[in-house]
Amino acid sequence: MKKNIILGILAAVVLLAACKNNGADKKAITDSINTAAWKPLPGSAIKLDSSKRYIYLTWDDSPQPPGTVNCKSVFRDAGIKATFFGVGFNKVGPWKKRIIDSIRNDYPQFLLANHSFSHGFNDKYSKFYSPAMTDSALNDFLRNEKDLNIQVKIIRLPGNNTWASNGVITGQKAENPLIVKLDKMGYKIVGWDIEWGQLGKQKAPKESAVEMVKKVTQKFEEGSTNQSNAIVILSHDRLFEKKQFADSLAKFISILKQDKRNVFETIDHYPTIQHK
User: Fold this and answer.
1) Per DSSP, what are the bridge partners of residue 161?
2) What letter does residue 208 receive in the DSSP assignment?
3) Predicted structure pTM score
4) Are the beta carbons of 184 and 168 closer than 8 angstroms?
């Protein structure tokens, strides 16, 4: 992607030199250069509006087709931003690799972040967070970052609702050596305010779209989110494999968009993550 931008700028510069005597053409090409150069990089800061309510949709365990593909399609059709937390050992085969590549390349609409390579040593959380396994767990995140080419130092811990940023650590594992080490290395760890949960062992969302909207509204009205005017919603790609559940996701977004205060953003624009 960066290579294509650079090539486009070089081509435009050549054209600009070729038509230096034509003012209109020069302006058009200059505008083209500015547009290409402006494209933000993952992790770029934005100005947050205190009059808005920011909604961060964060979907875990990508890639999980067809759920991941369905979610991307819903988000794209709605014109909103979302974050996918990738798991390296789920990226098996060319189709899943293309899904991960598409998420990474579609910034600023979608952001790819880190959910560990093994999903906490295959869901064995007591082992993963054991002090004796700190280095192994750390390397699991570093491997995932490299394998998926994740371009931001943003992590969600598998099976754990902990937040960490710039030495401030809160949540279930606030004193865990792994979390302390990740924080000192400059990683931002993201928990969640509410979860769109799974219905038992079924690949289906537990709550309806209307129920989830009520939960979001209540959290904002109570002011009980981790950060003021910001809510992090956790769910999983696999819950939206079937059309009826993808439709429920679309309805959830549609209702929230009716309130003009609501803005959907990627998690690199969460207040404590933008703060240096």
Assistant:
1) none
2) -
3) 0.86
4) no
pLDDT (mean) for 15-19: 45
Could you give the CA distance from residue 68 to residue 246 in angstroms, rounded to a whole number?
Answer: 10
Average pLDDT, the chain: 89
The answer to whether residue 91 scores a pLDDT higher than 60 is yes
Q: How many helices (H) and strands (E) does the chain have?
A: 11, 10
How many beta carbons lie within 10 A of that of residue 211, not counting itself? Answer: 13
Residues 6+ apart with CB under 8 A from 88: 116, 117, 118, 143, 144, 147, 148
Q: Over the range 16-30, which residues count as b (16 or more CB within 10 Å of their CB) and which as e?
A: beeeeeeeeeeeebe
Q: Helices 23-38 and 2-18 meet at what angle, rounded to 10? A: 170
Give the C-alpha distances (Å, rounded to integers) separating 189 from 3, 51, 119, 193, 229. 30, 26, 15, 13, 19
Q: What are the residue boundaries of the structural domains of the chain, listed by start?
A: 2-37, 53-274
Peptide bond into 108 cis (omega under 30): yes
- Sorting pLDDT into bands at 50, 70 and 90, what band is 174? confident
In DSSP notation, 168-186 reads EEEETTTT-HHHHHHHHTT
Among the listed residues 128, 187, 70, 228, the one whose alpha carbon sits nearest the alpha carbon of residue 84: 70
Domain 53-274 bears CATH identifier 3.50.50.60: no
Question: What are the distances in angstroms from CA 115 to CA 58, 155, 162?
Answer: 11, 6, 13
* Alpha helix (H) residue ranges in 148-275: 177-184, 209-222, 243-257, 271-274
**Phi, psi for 211 (deg, rounded to 5):** -60, -40
Alpha helices, DSSP H only, in 49-176?
67-78, 94-105, 119-123, 125-128, 134-147
Match 């794209």 to its residue by tokens.
76
**Does the pLDDT at position 25 exceed 70?**
no
